[in-house]
Write a structure and sequence with these properties.
Layout (H helix, E strand, L loop, with lengths): L2 H22 L3 E2 H10 L9 H10 L3 E8 L2 E9 L1 H25 L11
Antiparallel strand pairs: 1-3, 2-3
Length: 117
């Protein structure tokens, strides 16, 4: 079993929820989003984020606007839509249920290996 791959897949599975949550706090520039996800060890490669943002935009969960920059090219700022808020609420409920389920399973003690084994 490739434990690292499993850990990466677990993070990827939660990435949409985390991205929507971050964006729900207020309009955000992509590099700030990447910084927060990187600091939280939720993103391994930046290339993972851009396709996700495009999917969220296509699904009308987020929108963006271009803002001119004095220091370079225009910047794309993301914000959450009403549909995005509804999706985030559903994902939060799912996350809460998953945490409860995982806690129920993992709180049970692992039996000691038998001496006869």
């Amino acid at each position: 079993m490739n434990l690292t791959n499993t850990q990466v897949q677990m993070r990827k599975g939660l990435l949409e929820y985390c991205v929507l949550h971050i964006i729900s706090r207020g309009e955000i520039y992509t590099s700030d989003l990447i910084d927060e996800l990187t600091q939280a060890e939720m993103i391994v490669v930046e290339g993972t984020l851009y396709p996700l943002l495009n999917r969220l935009k296509t699904a009308a969960l987020v929108s963006y606007r271009w803002v001119e920059s004095d220091a370079g090219p225009p910047r794309k700022y993301y914000s959450i839509t009403e549909e995005g808020h509804a999706a985030l609420k559903n994902l939060a409920s799912t996350w809460k249920g998953l945490v409860q389920s995982i806690t129920q399973i993992t709180k049970k003690k692992i039996p000691s290996p038998s001496k006869n084994s």
